[in-house]
Amino acid sequence: MCSLRLWLAIIALVKTQALYAAPETLIIAGDLWCPVNCAVGANRPGIFIELAQRIFAEHGIKVEYKLTNWARAIHDTRLGRINAVVGAGVRDAPDFIFTKTAPGVSRICFYAKPDQGWRYEGLGSLEKITVGTINGYSYGAELNAYFERNKSDQTRVQQASGDRALAINIDKLRKNRVDAVIENSWVMQAYLAAEGKANELIDVGCRKIDVPIYVAFSPALKSSQAYADIFQQGLERLKANGELDALYRRYAVDQPGTGGNAPQP
User: Fold this and answer.
1) pTM of the model as a whole
2) CA 74 to CA 97: how far, in whole Å?
3) Residues with Cβ within 8 Å of residue 251, at least 6 apart in sequence
């Protein structure tokens, strides 16, 4: 009888521990790139954050979202300190694990003051101005090569770093320390709208090719392929039932051609 009671007590203890055991946690990170990923704990934490939370919750996996600067997010994910980075293109981290479907597309544009008078018309037009860029960002092969070639010339290229890199670049533009800023179109629109200054800067030309962006998983962790598979299956399901399109509408963004893009540069 005593032995039976002991076993019953052990079983009850095991069940209690299982009930209160911490759920499996997936850590994802990026720099502030709203509406792709917004403030931690916000009512609208960002399109990619909501997607990750929804998809992984269905598998009992908790998503922990952290903000850091972009170079640090890539570095820590590459080493396996973080499971995945949010909003990466293949050129940002070609060794990472990507899903077949890109949940978003990055349209890279140049922004300037309305009276500036300059427009982006290819690399040749950049030689006339100073551009504000962000350290660690990929803008496509051609622009990356130009920025790398001229990064030591402050009259051509100025790099901002840290959690407030976009704010720093816009402040430089306001103070005429740079002539134009290069940024994702969604991100710039969301930033200016949040400041109540939607018409302060204008689009003065975009890179011709839109680039798919992803939640990219660490190459250092064995679990990454399984996580990528879960995320891919979730994206396919949400696309098929219309919930993915509804999410984009909720953030008031237009999403061209994301249904099944293969990784591209």
Assistant:
1) 0.71
2) 12
3) 35, 44, 47
* Distance (Å, whole) CA 142 – CA 132: 16
Report pLDDT digits (tens) over 66-87: 999 999 999 999 999 999 999 9
Q: How long is the chain?
A: 265
Query: Letter for the amino acid at 245?
Result: D
